[in-house]
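Question (not urgent): is this output format expected?
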Amino acid sequence: MNLPIGSCAVDTRTGRLGIVMGHEGPYVQLRPYGGGREWDAPPDAVRVATQAELLGAATAHARSRGEAS
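Got this back:
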């Protein structure tokens, strides 16, 4: 699956949600939602994030910044 840059995806090997930053060689480059160090995942281990997963990540990020209780 070739996900567009900027889309939210899940690395099914780890369950981590990330933003697609690019495609390098055989890998999809993902960055954690809210920032952090990128990691590479094989395309067959990446799927589109669900709305529930995206909402959960956004809520967790807001809480970590003290923006939500």
